[in-house]
Amino acid sequence: MTTQTVTIPALLGGSFNAYLATPSTQPRAGIVLIQEIVGVNQNMRQIANDFAKVGYQVLVPDLYWRLEPGVQLDFDDEKQRAKAFELLGEFDWDSGVEDLKASLSFLRQYPSSTGKVGSVGFCSGGKLAYFMATRTDADANVSYYGVDIDRNLAEATKIHKPLILHMSANDEYVSPSAQTTIQQGLKDNPLVTIYRYEGVSHGFSRAGSSAYRKEAAELAGDRTLAFLKQHLG
To answer: Is 231 a residue of the active site?
Structure first.
């Protein structure tokens, strides 16, 4: 496996950096890995490396580049967490989706690409993974504890490719009523699979954090890999 920083032309002008992890074998397919609110930090790079080790070409775009390029924060640090929420408050979601479309195109055109590319996103990236399902032609999408999906269910009719939602039963950022709204709003769509993990909070897959819960994280990870293998190869 090799890693590098690449530069991607933005569809709206300018360019942004992304972390690219390339497997040592012929790539199965591509994954656009979508950052949490803390930026492209060590945790996101490690997730990318782990996907690359099982054969995927993984791209992690710096979605905060218009606000503060290269930001890397620790969610468990109170001051850094506050800054992350500040950045998120300034983040333009529509521009972020356009950057993800550019990332999708970059991976599809990359040498040795199979042409199939999906997305996996966490937290705010989980919301963006949902938008990847509703606003792009990504081949398969995985959302981990995505926020505000209940407020964007009007877009659900545009889902034409398989989507997984991993939901934390005790998510402090997605209320029980919001989770019920999501489940009711998507239950009739055969392309959507919802997994709910009891007894865990937001960020249960964030390795090394106070929220990390090994059993739930490994179960969600196994389900994600099986899903990606089925739909991306």
So the answer is: no
